[in-house]
Design goal:
The chain is built from 17 helices and 21 strands. It is of the alpha+beta class. GO terms for molecular function: peptide transmembrane transporter activity.
């Protein structure tokens, strides 16, 4: 596997098409020189203001909640995932697999951190090693024992065993493998306020102010790809969706992220705003079952529930153009995607009949004095999760389920108590933010995974996960993912995709030409109105 300029002449494979990267094209290189961040720019016509719903938890990449470093153009990875799903060079000029345990990373010349320090092989190796040591999320991709060593102008990455996840890891948004000035981050000693103004990252925009609800960024004039298009960016956390959209309508903000599915209809005919979708619907709203306590410890009840959901109806009647129907755990068109999520109301009723659940006078089933009640958790920050829940509530009621919706400010915290929930729907995709299927698989569905709140523990699922880590063969990986879907969806009904979501942004009329990213690269150096 060679991700470099030279491979561009020989062909490409798309992650979205194959799930495995073999050869890809390189980015063009724009020369740059070292320099300081321009922190004097005020709010001008080329200043972008974004209203977002999620708090900005912290600034140290080894901590949690730093995905936004990637999203807003602050930090960069060695590799990147393009909008069509291809992994290509970014800070790296190329990445080559020398053998099953060794990867060689060649850096571009002339790159600097925002504080003017050069991006050397030693600096890159230090950032990778710090992440491997301190970030559990990073170790999903680069497990303990992985070592990065500077050798001249290259970085050699050595893994303790064959690791096919290296390219996806070096490109990942989700696991804090961005490159940064370790000395500047360590000097802050965990205090995010001390990272402000340190110029620790390499992206086109540098942090000048920060609180968990307010982020201010200024253009880095010496950015390696060229002069960034905007003087600065403000990201303000506005929890209320109506307030976010009203801010765009009034001109206080240029963009509002995470609108509900009803926003498009509500704003129809409003010439002051535009509702923009990403080209592809890649993010699944996963419906997970609590396997520790409650009604879904019974596989037959799980199967009845998943077959009582009308997946096409969710997309058609709830999405308002924001959803694509889910036929399986992965978006249609991927070579490993199975269409094994089937809506069959009569089959669902029959399963419950045979299991002894009797329909009551109000249409809700009971068994041994217990009502067939499902405590269903949604995310307050993702209003579309509640929209979908309301639609599913009516659908599964026809089979005899009573769905009680819990709109949680912190759904993860609710799910920490096994006695407090039965099922959930969340913006927690079967693909990572950069279209990788393996990382979500490992953290959500293998025993002890960091996002496995369900308590899912299946020996075959675990064995598949281990094989996915180590196989470089595309056909084998696809076969493994297909078998996993048979278990997860059809045989055990542990999890299904409620729908697939286009990433949607409400913009001002001035920003109506903004192109929404499939892979959450919301801000690039050339992003402009």
């Amino acid at each position: 596997m060679n991700i470099s300029k030279s491979t561009a002449r020989h062909g490409r494979y798309s992650v979205l098409r194959t799930g495995v990267v073999t050869v890809v094209a390189a980015l063009g290189i724009v020369g740059c020189s070292s320099g300081a961040v321009d922190t004097t720019a005020g709010i001008t016509d080329d200043h972008l203001t974004i209203y977002n719903s999620y708090k900005i938890a912290g600034l140290d990449p080894a901590a949690t909640g730093t995905n936004w470093l990637f999203d807003w153009g602050v930090a960069e990875n060695l590799l990147q995932v393009e909008e069509d799903g291809e992994i290509t060079p970014w800070l790296a000029e190329g990445v080559e697999r020398r053998d099953d345990l060794t990867w060689v990373i060649t850096l571009r010349d002339g790159q600097t951190f925002q504080n003017g320090k050069p991006v050397t092989a030693q600096a890159v190796a230090a950032a990778l090693n710090r992440q491997i040591e301190k970030s559990k999320a990073a170790r999903v991709y680069l497990e303990s024992g992985t070592q990065a060593v500077a050798e001249g102008d290259t970085v050699v990455l050595r893994t303790p065993k064959p690791n096919a996840m290296v390219p996806a890891g070096l490109a990942a948004r989700d696991n804090s493998l961005q490159i940064y000035d370790v000395e500047a981050i360590d000097a802050a000693a965990g205090d995010s306020a001390k990272i402000v103004g340190s110029g620790a990252y390499t992206g086109p925009y540098a942090i000048t102010q920060w609180t968990p609800t307010d982020l201010e960024l200024a253009r880095y004039d010496a950015y390696w790809q060229g002069t960034p298009a905007l003087s600065g960016i403000s990201v303000d956390v506005v929890p209320d969706e109506q307030a976010r959209i009203a801010g765009v309508e009034s001109g206080e903000a240029d963009m509002a992220f995470y609108p509900s599915t009803g926003a498009r209809l509500a704003l129809e005919g409003n010439s002051t705003v535009a509702v923009k979708n990403s080209p592809k619907a890649l993010q699944s709203l996963l419906i997970e079952m609590n396997l520790k306590e409650g009604v879904f410890t019974d596989v037959e009840v799980r199967k009845a529930f998943t077959q009582a959901i009308d997946y096409q109806g969710v997309a058609d009647n709830i999405g308002n153009g924001s959803f694509d129907a889910a036929e399986g755990l992965y978006p249609e068109g991927l070579p490993y995607a199975l269409d094994n999520q089937k809506y069959d109301l009569e089959a669902a009723k029959s399963i419950l009949d045979k299991a002894g659940w009797v329909v009551g006078s109000d249409g809700i089933r009971t068994k041994d004095g217990q009502r067939l009640t499902v405590r269903f958790v949604t995310q307050a920050q993702g209003p579309e999760t509640t929209d979908v829940a309301i639609g599913i509530q009516d659908q599964v009621a026809k089979a005899g389920f009573e769905l009680r919706i819990d709109v949680a400010e912190d759904s993860a915290a609710v799910k920490e108590n096994p006695a407090g929930w039965d099922s959930s729907i969340a913006l927690s995709g079967s693909l990572s933010g950069t279209a990788d299927p393996v990382q979500p698989y490992l953290v959500r569905w293998t025993t002890g995974g960091s996002s496995n709140a369900q308590g899912l523990s299946n020996p075959e699922i675990d064995a598949i996960g281990e094989k996915l880590r180590g196989t470089f063969d595309e056909d084998e990986r696809n076969e493994l993912l297909e078998r996993a879907q048979e278990i997860l969806v059809a045989e055990q009904a542990y999890v299904v995709a409620g729908t697939f979501k286009y990433f949607t942004v409400v913009t001002s009329d001035e920003w109506s030409g903004y192109e929404v990213s499939n892979v959450r690269r919301h801000i690039r150096y050339d992003t402009g109105a």
